[in-house]
Amino acid sequence: MDLNDKNVLLTGGSAGIGREMARQLQAKGARVILTGRDPARLDSMRAEGFEALTADLSNAAGVDALLALLGDRPLDVLINNAGQLVDHDFRKGAPDADAADEGIYANLTAPIRLITALVPRLRGRPQAAIVNVTSGLAIAPAARQPVYCATKAGLRFYTLALREQLKDTSIQVIEALPPVVDTQMNDGNPMKKMPAEECARQIVAAIEQQRDEANIGMTRALRMVESIAPSLARRMTLRF
Description:
By secondary structure, the chain is α/β, with parallel strands linked by helices. Helix content is 47%, strand content 14%.
């Protein structure tokens, strides 16, 4: 896909991987509308020339508000990148059930609702794409992040099924599976982290190259192990 002059909606675009994707997409000539929750970060992105919308995607009202702000603008690419990492570890104490609900909504329900609302608009474009950012942990889970892993695995299987449904349309369905990336979400994670700029570069390249799946960094090795010995892949990640 030639990204020049394409209209892109990028959720979670004010920090981390999303911020780097926004910059790289803009550099390629795309018109990027990004979303986020932090006012200072959104203002910073506006200063770089982006249209930045305030959107809390952890509940239905937030998704509906975003769709209302978007209006009937043309759209060529939807990138579901926003996500929440939920602390849900019984070894540390009783998890917060409300936080789990918000994480499930932000990571899984919100992308589904946005896709449901926007597929008719994307169908009307000669070439369009839906990009769902899942995780290497959608393949094999980490013990300390069960809610995050479950939602990303859910989004992975939703993406696989959606791709089959839309295979005869103008919409390509792409899944991006990052490894551990150097973002605020992973502060305190002792694992080696990929720079956010490089992760974003590989996702943008997957869109340009029209690849169905982008296994990024260490996720490529994990996918290979999982294809040969799923139990070994799980043992590798469950330690974390």
